[in-house]
Write a structure and sequence with these properties.
single chain; alpha+beta; Structural Genomics Hypothetical 15.5 Kd Protein In mrcA-pckA Intergenic Region, Chain A; Alpha-Beta Plaits; 3 domains; nine-stranded mixed sheet; elongated
């Protein structure tokens, strides 16, 4: 579900603020009923009309990108740096990233124009697992993995339980490769978790997102998701939500 004014803006009716004005003036209907409140949310199956004319809503489209380094997880940047949508020059739909990866972090990133699915994937109550591989400073010990798995306090709040394992260690270079699976999405969470246990991240890549992995995708490459993959993500989110509510 998305806010009505956001759906209108996304369809090209007007800016979000102008769309809000149209709603307040009673010029917008949802499923045949005039809506004048700004808090209304609509889904893909809802019919939205402006001045009696149904808005042209884009068909939902979904992509998996292997985000390269030095790329912003956004649709624009005030410093004119490369953004992820620059990697989709021939896609006419107005897509946007689901969540974000840091400028120097690589890996799995979903882009779509489906706001309903995007919110499901980002909301912590849906518990979507994301697996990262981090190259960190120092030799990571087993007790440190236990701390990461049980949850540690980062910026005054304890992280949720995670899964962690050592992939490899290089004593000569004093670095360890660690796989970490989390379902939260706080800002710079993985980097902050490793920093909190004394192992700053040198390099970070997100290997999986829910049921998706990067098989066959080099940095900067992307592919369109198949319908069964989108359904898998929806089902996973709903199953996790139901489990957490029991």
């Amino acid at each position: 579900m998305e806010r009505l004014q956001k759906v209108m803006a996304h369809a090209g009716i007007a800016s979000r603020r102008k769309s809000e004005e149209l709603i307040v003036k009673g010029r917008v209907k949802v499923n045949g009923e005039v809506v004048k409140e700004l808090g209304v949310q609509v889904g893909n199956s809802d019919r939205v009309e402006v001045d009696g004319v149904p808005i042209d809503r884009e068909e939902p489209i979904y992509f998996l990108l292997n985000k390269p380094r030095n790329t912003i997880s956004a649709v624009s940047d005030d410093k004119d740096r490369r953004v992820v949508t620059d990697l989709f020059p021939h896609i006419e739909q107005r897509i946007y990233p689901v969540g974000r990866l840091d400028y120097d972090t690589t890996g799995a990133l979903i882009l779509t124009n489906d706001g309903e699915l995007s919110q499901m994937l980002m909301h912590p109550k849906f518990n979507i697992d994301k697996t990262y591989v981090a190259k960190v400073e120092g030799m990571v010990e087993k007790h440190t993995l236990t701390k990461l798995e049980k949850g540690i306090v980062v910026e005054g709040k304890r992280t949720a339980p995670a899964k962690a394992k050592i992939i490899s260690a290089d004593k000569a270079k004093n670095v360890t490769m660690v796989e970490l699976t989390i379902h939260e999405g706080r800002n710079r969470q993985v980097k902050n978790m490793f920093k909190a246990v004394g192992h700053p991240v040198q390099k970070l890549k997100r290997e999986t997102y829910g049921t998706l992995n990067l098989d066959g995708l080099r940095p900067g490459e992307w592919r369109e998701l198949k319908s069964f993959e989108v359904n898998q993500l929806r089902n996973l989110a709903n199953q996790n939500k139901n489990s957490s509510e029991k």
